[in-house]
Amino acid sequence: MSQAAERLRLLSGHLDRHAAVLRAAPTSTQTVTHSYPHRFRYSLDNSLLTPEQRQFYEENGFLLIKNLVTEDDVNKFRKAFERICLKEVSVPGLVVMRDVAIAKSEFVPDQKAVSKIQDFQEDPELFRYCTLPQILKYVECFTGPNIMAMHTMLINKPPDAGKKTSRHPMHQDLHYFPFRPVDRIVCSWTAMEKVTRQNGCLVVLPGTHHGTLLVHDYPEWEGGVNKMYHGVRDYDPNHPRVHLEMEKGDTVFFHPLLIHGSGMNQTEGFRKAISCHYASGDCYYIDVKGTTQENIANEVKEIAERRFDAGDISFQDSWAFRGRLVQARDPEKQKLQRRTLTAPKGA
Ligand SMILES: CCCCCCCCCCCCCC(=O)SCCNC(=O)CCNC(=O)[C@H](O)C(C)(C)COP(=O)(O)OP(=O)(O)OC[C@H]1O[C@@H](n2cnc3c(N)ncnc32)[C@H](O)[C@@H]1OP(=O)(O)O
Ligand SMILES: Nc1ncnc2c1ncn2[C@@H]1O[C@H](COP(=O)(O)OP(=O)(O)OP(=O)(O)O)[C@@H](O)[C@H]1O
Ligand SMILES: O=C(O)CCC(=O)C(=O)O
Ligand SMILES: [Fe+2]
Ligand SMILES: [Mg+2]
C-alpha cells in the first residue's frame, strides 16, 4: 500500500470510531422532494421558538438569541484557543489560518497572527461548543433531531493591517457545502466578546435566504483577499444591511443562503467568535460538477490532497472526514451510512 493510501486508511479508520456521516446522494437528486407545511419552510414544528421568533427566521433567515452561552464556557473556549496558538497542544486535522496581510509581512508576532482556526472537531474542549444542549435545542428547530456538526471555526479577526484584508466578503455559506437539502442546514455563531461595527461584527442582508445560491468568486480587492474567501459576485448593493452587534455569549443562528460578511476590524483587539455549521443527519451529498460550486470544490480538493498527501480526495470526502454526529433520536437505529471513500491513486 502506498504511503498516501495508508494515511487515508488510518484517517478513515480513526473516524469510524467517532461518528457516522451523511448518507450518499440518491442517484437522482431531482426526484427527491421535500414537502413542508405551507406556512413554514425554513423551520420545523417545535416547542421552543415563540411564534414571533419562528416567523422572524422564516422571513429574515437569522435569529439572534441573547446570552445563550455562559461567560464561563466562553472563557474556557478562549483558553483552549490560546493553548492551540501557543502550540501547547496539537489537534489532529486542525487548520490554522493567518491573515493574508500578516502572513506576507516580515514581522509575525506568533500567536497573535492566527486569524482563524477551522476543523477543531478533535479538540474536546472546543468541540464541546458544538454539543452544548442549549445550542442543540435551537439547532433542532431547523435540522430536526438527527444532527451532524459539519464544520467548526473559531474566528480571531485581527486588527486590520491597513489593507482591509480583515474583511470577510459578502457570501452564502452554502457555496462551500456539497450537501442538501439546504433548509436543513444551519450555522450557530457565538460572540466571544462584545462585537460591534467597530471591530467587524457580522453584517447580514435579511431575507436573502429566499433566493438561490449565487455565483461566488474572489472579490477584486486591491489589498489582497484571504484564501477561499469567495464573495457573491453580484448582490444588490441597495439591499438593507443589518449589523449584528452582540454581547459575549449572544448567539445567532442563520440559514446557509443568507448573504453575510463582516467588516474591517478597526480596533487594536482580536475580535473572537466561535461557530459550527450543522446539518440534518438525513441530508445527502450532491455532485457539484457543472454548478457554480465547482470553483470552490477544486480549491478544497487541492488543499485536502496537499494536506493529506493523498492522490484523490473528493469534495464530498473532505466533508465526510469532518462531520460528527452530535445528536440522534435513536442512535442504534441511525441509518447514517458512511460515504465510500474514493481510493487514492496508486492504492
Ligand atoms: C480539508 C481542506 C480544508 C477545506 C476548507 C473548507 C472551507 C469550508 C468553509 C465553510 C464556510 C466558511 C467560509 C470560510 O471561512 S472560507 C475560508 C476558509 N479558508 C481556508 O480553509 C484556508 C485554509 N488555509 C490554508 O489552506 C493555508 O493556510 C493556506 C493555503 C492559505 C496557506 O498555506 P500555509 O499556511 O502552508 O502557508 P505558507 O506559509 O506555506 O504560504 C503559502 C502561500 O500562501 C500565502 N498565504 C498564507 N496565508 C494566506 C491566506 N490566508 N490567504 C491567502 N494566501 C495566504 C503565503 O503568503 C504564501 O504565498 P506566496 O508567498 O507563495 O505568494
Ligand atoms: N468594496 C466592497 N465590495 C464587496 N464587499 C464589501 C466591500 N466593502 C465592504 N464589503 C463588505 O461589506 C460588509 C461590511 O464591511 P465594512 O467594513 O465596509 O463595514 P461597513 O458596514 O461599511 O461599516 P463602515 O461604514 O464602518 O465601514 C463586509 O462583509 C465587507 O466585507
Ligand atoms: O467574520 C466572521 O466571523 C464571519 C465569517 C464567516 O462568515 C465565515 O467564515 O463563513
Ligand atoms: Fe459565512
Ligand atoms: Mg464600509
From TrEMBL:
Pfam families: PhyH (PF05721)
Family matches, as InterPro entries: PhyH, Phytyl_CoA_dOase-like
Signal sequence region: none
GO MF assignments: L-ascorbic acid binding; metal ion binding; phytanoyl-CoA dioxygenase activity
Annotated family: Belongs to the PhyH family.
Keyword Iron: yes
Cofactor: Fe cation; ATP; L-ascorbate
Protein name: Phytanoyl-CoA dioxygenase, peroxisomal
GO biological process: fatty acid alpha-oxidation
Catalytic activity: decanoyl-CoA + 2-oxoglutarate + O2 = 2-hydroxydecanoyl-CoA + succinate + CO2; 3-methylbutanoyl-CoA + 2-oxoglutarate + O2 = 2-hydroxy-3-methylbutanoyl-CoA + succinate + CO2; 3-methylhexadecanoyl-CoA + 2-oxoglutarate + O2 = 2-hydroxy-3-methylhexadecanoyl-CoA + succinate + CO2; 3-methylnonanoyl-CoA + 2-oxoglutarate + O2 = 2-hydroxy-3-methylnonanoyl-CoA + succinate + CO2
Top-level taxonomic group: Eukaryota
Any one Gene Ontology cellular component term annotated for this protein: peroxisome
Keywords carried by this UniProt record: Dioxygenase, Iron, Metal-binding, Oxidoreductase, Vitamin C
Organism: Gouania willdenowi
Pathway: Lipid metabolism; fatty acid metabolism
Enzyme Commission number(s) from the entry: 1.14.11.18
